[in-house]
Design brief:
single chain; alpha+beta; Umud Fragment, subunit A; 4 helices; 12 strands; elongated
């Protein structure tokens, strides 16, 4: 009887150790993927409506712009401009990895300190709005992703400096974007939005 009890304890200990190792592996792999490959984000506002709604979840590729340059029309996530918000306090790696796992399984909402907008102007280009439409240089910008009849409030020409991007929300009447805080640093871009994963019934590639 004693041998059976001891054997049961050993098996329970091995199972507990295996589960602990598995959990650590999941946390580490998730942290690596989040840092270098992809990350989930939560949409907190209507600035990208109708394509992205409040509470939608999106996945951002961090590899896209290592393979090619940023392109006009891409939807990107970028860090809040320094002039608008104090940077978040750094958290230990274990804490960040744990949160990443919880975000991945939809237990907690992904961070909302970043902005989600669409690239309109590239470095060296001049962007302006006239008569409710956008122009890049002298060329009218066709925007098939906008609702029919949507107009952009006129603004004077803005030349995009090297190393920066001019971004706008699709919901032009309710978006805090480069019209207010100017072109963003290219280095502040977290990555390109590639897919909407929540709600499941409305999941789609972007």
């Amino acid at each position: 009887m004693a041998n059976r009890t001891e054997g049961g304890r050993r098996r329970a200990t091995r199972i507990a150790l295996d589960l602990a190792v598995l959990l650590v592996a999941i946390v580490v792999i998730t942290a690596v993927l989040r840092t270098f490959v992809a990350q989930a984000f939560y949409i907190p506002s209507l600035s990208m409506a109708p394509q992205l709604q409040v509470q939608d979840r999106i996945v951002v590729s961090k590899l896209s712009y290592r393979l090619h340059e940023a392109r006009r029309g891409d939807i990107v996530v970028f860090d809040s401009p320094p002039s608008l918000e104090a940077p978040p306090k750094p958290r230990p790696l274990a804490s960040r990895a744990t949160r990443a796992v919880l975000e991945g399984v939809n237990v907690v909402k992904p961070a909302t300190t970043e902005y989600v907008k669409r690239i309109i102007g590239l470095p060296g280009e001049q962007v302006a709005a006239r008569g409710g439409s956008l122009y890049v240089g002298d060329r009218l910008l066709v925007e098939p992703y906008l609702p029919t009849g949507l107009r952009t409030e006129d603004f004077d020409p803005v030349t995009v400096p090297e190393g920066k991007l001019f971004v706008l929300g699709d919901n032009r009447g309710s978006s805090f974007d480069s019209r207010r805080f100017g072109p963003i640093e290219r280095s502040s871009v977290v990555g390109r939005v590639v897919v909407k994963v929540w709600p499941l019934g409305d999941a789609s590639w972007l």
